[in-house]
Fold this sequence. Notes:
The structure holds two protein chains of two kinds.
Chain A: E1 2-8, H1 20-30, E2 35-41, E3 53-56, H2 61-74, H3 76-82, E4 86-90, H4 92-96, E5 100-102, E6 108-110, E7 117-120, E8 127-135, E9 143-149, E10 152-155, E11 163-167, E12 176-177, E13 179-181, E14 184-187, H5 193-196, H6 198-209, H7 218-232
Parallel strand pairs in A: 1-2, 1-3, 3-4, 4-14
Antiparallel strand pairs in A: 5-6, 7-10, 8-9, 8-11, 11-12, 13-14
Helix pairs in contact in A: 1-6
Chain B: H1 3-23, H2 30-40, H3 44-49, E1 53-58, H4 63-78, E2 82-84, H5 92-101, E3 107-111, H6 117-124, E4 128-131, H7 139-142, H8 145-155, E5 162-166, H9 170-175, E6 181-186, E7 206-208, E8 211-213, E9 225-226, H10 233-247, H11 254-262, E10 268-273, E11 276-282, H12 286-293, E12 300-304, E13 330-334, H13 338-347, E14 352-354, H14 358-362, E15 370-374, H15 376-386
Helix pairs in contact in B: 1-2, 2-5, 4-10, 10-11
Amino acid sequence: MTISIVRLYHDLMGTYGDQGNAEVLIHRAKARGIDCELIEVTPHMPVPTSGDIYLIGGGEDGPQTASLRMLQKDGGLNVAIDRGATLFAVCAGFQIIGRELPNPDGGSIEGLALLDAITIVDDSPRSVGELVIEPSVAGLPVFTGFENHQGLTELGPEVRPLGRVISGVGNGFDGIEGAWQGNIIATYMHGPALARNPELADVLLANVVGELAPFEDEFANELARERRATLTAK
Amino acid sequence: MSKSLRLGVATAVGEFTGLASRALGRGRGETIAGRAILAVDSGAIKKLAAGRDIVLVSGTNGKTTTTTNLSKVLEFGTDEDVSTSKFGANMRAGIVAALAAKPRNRYVVLECDELYLPEMYRLVEPKVIVLLNLSRDQLHRTGEVRKVAQLWHDTFTRDDVTLIIDRDDPFLEYAVANAGHVVRVTFGGRKHPDAATCPQCSELLDWTAGDYKCACGLGSKLATVRGERALSGPARNSVLAIEAARLMGAVVPIEMVQDLTANPPDRVVENVVAGRTVNTRLAKNPESWRNTLAQVSSNNVILAVNARGIDGKDTSWLWDVDYSALVGKNVVCIGERRRDVAYRISVQGIATKVAGSFEEAVALFDDQPIEAVASYTAFQDLAAQQMGLNVKTGGRK
């Protein structure tokens, strides 16, 4: 089988290295004999509605707003996610898939409303540093990443967080981090998140193909282990 | 204490502290000497800069090399001694130490950290500022590239200095949009990897054949100086340095210009590790890794990556670099974040090993030449080790 991975606007939303998430997914899928096609969506190109996994990363305020406007005008991402495609959104990407987010020029703007979440800014300092969380789904190890964001995100009552914060800031409300609602997973973790947490990459792949064959990637496992050990030892 | 006496005491204390620091093997002394001077006289920078002809060099990549290069060209072209920054010390302490070293020299070339540039511009009243380039670097500290461009944009609003910029860089064009005197050097235009949107208004930039424009008015401007197309990053910086030297009154012969652009100075240091020569280049962000990997010619390559403050604490950017130049080579990853870079390149299909140190890495190679690409602190630690100084050890394995 072939799964199609759609990377959205990585020129705009790739400031913090999140485009590596696509490479990790492809690497881990191919190791299981699953073919992948990578579709790069560039500005003003229609967003395909038939993709399996959509990826959107972190970017600066201006590019974030520009991306949001294009996705709203295009409508393809909302069609795909409503159809059941998987979405993995990081940082600024997490913020734009919510219902509301800060307008860089003041006030707030409407998001894509794929996720019941609202992002605000207050006068608290930017959240920058290593982030460690205990996932809210049993059977997964501690996740680690690097956060670098100004906004604070409050989840709606029906949305499960990705995890509970062990150290770092995360969403900035209730000691939780990220969101996990049906086929949508969102997080503030860079690293890229899927490189530092191979189990999370496999959650996304399993969403599409069902149960995955085991895959022990020495370099991935060593990296995940080293980060977890170093950051939980403090 | 009178003002001049206080300054005299301050510089004497600085000199002594710098010597003591070096003698104790605690570093090269500039930063420590500078701190001591500022502790005695907090106004020392302004006083030591008064009446001198100063050039500031700033930008993401090439500051240290360009500062050294420019000071040499200026010395040659003016036949005068030039005071300059040493070893990349580019914040308050490093700058005051450079100013204090030979306070009677008329010419001074100072390297300046991007975020300190507004303060130093006001304090030292430079004649010329060279802005080399802006791209992603140390995002945990600067937040965003455009924030640096905005900071400079808000700073350069008068006509009391001449700014020299690479006009192909939209962030620099925005940084100098309100400035009075700008010398624009073009290298034929090239798309900036971090400037998909406009630094001024955040709309999508319209890029055509390396030039850009935006509905808000920002766009590629007519250049004063035309450099050759397709020059490397270090060669482009050489061209900017030569322009600065000329503006300061230096006579730069054409042979020197040709040599500096054909063989631009690059920070390659010949280190000896466990009896083997390791030619080491500093690379600290996506753009400098791209430039550096393109120059690696040996078959044995060490990649040394740390993530201490100055390296950028987030290593995600390793995924923005194309490592295909390393395909087929023997690669060993070292440093505190060797596992991040090893996994990254393994996903790109490059065979690699990891090792705990330069010494361990060297032992894994055949007799062929060895090159290393090192992040900032890995590069500094190796340099310090070569000088026999105490080195902060490389963290847990």
